[in-house]
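During the no-cost extension, the postdoctoral fellow (Dr. R.K.) reprocessed legacy sequence entries with the updated structure-token encoder. One reprocessed record is reproduced below for audit purposes.
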Amino acid sequence: ASRRDGNWEIYVLHLDDGRLARLTDNPAYDGAPAWSPDGTRLAFESYRDGNLEIYSVAAAGGEAQRLTEDPAGDYGPAWSPDGATIAFTSWRDGNKEIYAVPAAGGEARNLSRHPADDESPAWGSGSALAFVSWRDVDPQTGNRNAEIYALAVPDGGEAQRLTDNPWPDLD
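Re-encoded structure tokens follow.
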């Protein structure tokens, strides 16, 4: 993503010939691009419909497809390894939660389902989805601490804490 034309847009640099191709062209912010595993599409976040939503566009360019539609902000797309699902962070439930939507479009569903903030999804191998969660409270200070959690998608179930550190684990 770049503001090279005065507005945040998505670009692709073709390494074979050095050509820069602009994939989006909208007066609203387009950013945080994420490549599909097969390299044919990019998912990205955009304010083009008045609030932050998830879109995808063909790597060759063309019309962007809106994948989410909710008054709350949806952002930070991450493709599943098989390319069938896009995970993202959303404020839909009044706090940050991890949601997933089919890459072809459809109903988004809450994966993390926790009252504390969950954010920054990242897929591992297979169906493992890791994310940052603020659900742990430091017993000495009473402050929330960010740890890395993971859960299986689509099965879901209880998220498993992967880190246990007195300092925030954010990536």
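The chain has no helices and 14 strands. The chain has a mean pLDDT of 92. The remaining legacy entries will be reprocessed before the final report is submitted.
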